[in-house]
Amino acid sequence: MRCPFCKNDDTKVTDTRATDDGRAIRRRRECLQCGRRFTTYEMVEEEPLTVIKKDGSRELFDRNKILNGLIRACNKRVVTRPQIEAIVTRVERNIRNSLVQEVPSVKIGEMVLEELKNVDEVAYIRFASVYRQFADLDSFMAELKHLMGHDTEKNK
């Protein structure tokens, strides 16, 4: 690894730690010429995922879009940031484990809803109202009844 300060190729690793739930390795390095220290990260290079939008257009997968949507849905709820991050991580892991390079946005939305249903029902309804674009009160009520039916089955 080349030193970012003096450009010398001779460096040594002084500390190594796993970060980001084991998805990356953080290394502290020291340049043997100038003695300065710096940090590097090593991670698996992942294949780019493409999201197929409802209108048929395609764009690169961006986990921040899911994160931002969940943050809005969970606003003023008792859902913590680590819980939200865990949902995003599980959804992304499930998509990547499916070994497809293109995934419909509808499938991503359903995966998020399935995860959110078990965390906070109000946040679930908020997310569903934006994601499913309820056209009227009847479609909104149908989703509430579906959710209430899920609760009844869960409590049996």
Percent strand equals 15-25%
Low-confidence stretches: none
Q: What is the straight-line distance between the termini?
A: 59 Å
How many individual domains?
A: 2
Please summarize the sheet with the most strands: 3 strands, antiparallel
Mean pLDDT: 87
Number of strands: 6
Structural class per helix/strand content?
Answer: alpha+beta
Question: How would you spell out the order of helices and strands?
Answer: EEEEEHHEHHH
Give the helix tally.
Answer: 5
Radius of gyration: 22 Å
- Secondary structure: helix percent: 40-55%
What is the subunit arrangement here?
A: single chain
Shape: elongated
Description of the structure:
With 156 residues, this protein is of the alpha+beta class. The chain folds into two domains: 33 residues; 105 residues. The chain is 45% helix and 21% strand. The protein has five helices and six strands; from the N terminus they run E-E-E-E-E-H-H-E-H-H-H. The strands form two sheets. It has a three-stranded antiparallel beta sheet with strand order 1-2-3, with no helix packed on it. A three-stranded mixed beta sheet has the order 5-4-6. Strand 1 and strand 2 form a beta hairpin. Helix 2 crosses helix 3 and helix 3 runs antiparallel to helix 4.
